[in-house]
Design brief:
The chain is mainly α and 173 residues long. 61% of the residues lie in helices and 0% in strands. The chain has a single domain, classed as Hypothetical protein af1432 (Orthogonal Bundle), CATH 1.10.3210.
Length: 173
């Protein structure tokens, strides 16, 4: 099992925002690469560059915009970086980011596998989709969580307490 541990678009996008990520950079980087690895395994092929950009920035708005209502800020980051990487399919990347926390399946296979891959990682491998649990465990051995889930729990609880009428703004029906 070989996890994806480097991609030029992901690496450069994360370097651009390392100040915003601060000490959370290693945990977020590993989340991105675990998700990218699961995504490629679910697809059975490498993802296109626009999907790699979506992975790099899909949650990044948490740090750059300072909020857990981060889908639109993350979409905006994809738009801002797309030209730098020669990506013309920015609409696809934005859609993938905007839909990655939908509770119901989405019709497009690329977006659906992205959504499932993110869910695998956010659930700490509890919800593995069609992947083998041993595959997920191998990816986590290569790219450990490094406190990513504790960060999410603290941040979500704090956001929910401050916004009780809309405690989980990233979820979509």
């Amino acid at each position: 099992m070989n996890a994806v541990t480097a991609h030029p678009i992901v690496d450069l996008a994360l370097r651009r925002h390392e100040d915003a990520l601060g000490g959370d950079l290693p945990a977020y980087r590993n989340h991105v690469y675990r998700g990218l690895t699961y995504h490629q395994e679910l697809l059975g092929a490498p993802v296109p560059d626009w999907a790699a950009l979506a992975w790099a920035v899909h949650d990044l708005g948490i740090w750059t915009a300072g909020t857990f209502d981060y889908l639109e800020p993350s979409c905006d980051l994809a738009s801002a970086l797309a030209g730098e990487f020669g990506i013309t399919e920015v609409g696809h990347a934005r859609m993938m980011i905007a839909q990655h926390h939908k509770l119901r399946a989405v019709g497009d296979p690329m977006n659906e596998t992205f959504r499932i891959a993110d869910r695998i990682d956010v659930s700490r491998g509890l919800l593995v989709g069609s992947l083998q649990r041993s595959f997920v465990k191998g990816v986590v051995r290569e790219l450990p969580y490094l406190g990513f889930h504790a960060f999410l729990a603290r941040g979500l609880l704090g956001y929910a307490a401050a916004h009780p009428h809309r405690p989980f703004p990233m979820l979509r029906w």
